[in-house]
Amino acid sequence: ANSHFIGEHVAREHGVPADRLAVIPRGVDLDRFDPARINQRAVQTLRAKWRVEPEQILILLPARLTRWKGQEHAIAALALIADQTSNAVLVCAGDAQGRSDYAETLRTKAEAAGIALRLPGHVEDMATAYAAADLVLNPSIEPEAFGRSAAEAQALGRPVIVADHGGAREVVEHAVTGWRAPPG
Q1: Which of 38, 45, 50, 58 has the fewest CB atoms found within 10 Å of its own CB?
Q2: CA 36 to chain centroid
Q3: For the range 43-48, what are the long-range contacts, defined as Cβ-Cβ under 8 Å and sequence gap of 24 or more?
Q4: CA of 101: how far to CAs of 105, 115, 138, 173, in Å?
Q5: Is the dihedral of CA 120, 29, 155, 69 positive or negative?
Q6: CB-based contact 163:183 (threshold 8 Å)
Q7: What DSSP string runs through the chain?
Q8: What is the pTM of this model?
Q9: What is the pLDDT along the chain (184 residues), one digit of tens a residue?
Q10: How many CB atoms lie within 10 A of CB 27?
């Protein structure tokens, strides 16, 4: 299993005995996600492409656009602290996979809340995207097997906030390597 969360799920749901299970956490390519290898010009170019000024705070939510990944919750959370985040831009980097209605819902909700939102679609160079971010979010409303985006962001020295469930619990030590918040 790629996390204790999934190992426990497999044992519980499929009756697999503990001696037949091994947890091998999904890793992060520390060469690819090495801060020293990031091209700072590429970071600046990406921020400019996403229309994020150097003085603005870039909050990155890397996930395909689907409700259970929590993009709507990110918008709602930013709206709650809008007076403190007026200089922030939320970038939901991920493919809509045909969910153009959902992408439009996100745009509408962000506009109504006064949140600057960018939906750049699929991003090939995630190392540069993480390096461009000031904060990385993983607010999934359902537990995920492993918190890959949190692990990759942390490898690049970026602070993370994750939903406190699933494999993300094993990746983020609350108030030490990032923050965990109740799902939703």
Answers
A1: 45
A2: 22
A3: 43/128, 43/131, 43/132, 46/125, 46/128, 46/129, 46/132, 47/132
A4: 6, 19, 22, 35
A5: positive
A6: yes
A7: --SHHHHHHHHHHH---GGG---------TTTT-GGG--HHHHHHHHHHTT--TTSEEEEEES-S-GGG-HHHHHHHHHHTTTT-TTEEEEEES--TT-HHHHHHHHHHHHHHT-EEE-----S-HHHHHHH-SEEEE--SS--S--HHHHHHHHTT--EEEESSTTHHHH--BTTTBEEE---
A8: 0.95
A9: 999 999 999 999 999 998 999 999 988 999 999 999 999 999 999 999 999 999 999 999 999 999 999 999 999 999 999 888 889 999 999 999 998 899 999 999 999 999 999 999 999 999 999 999 999 999 999 999 998 999 999 999 999 999 999 999 999 999 999 999 999 8
A10: 11
Would you give the distance in Å from CA 141 to the centre of its chain?
A: 12
Q: Which tokens is 100 given? A: 């153009």
State both tokens at 174: 């609350």
Tokens representing 180?
A: 């965990």
Tokens 């990746």 locate to 171
- What's the rounded Cα separation, in Å, for the pair 50 and 164? 29
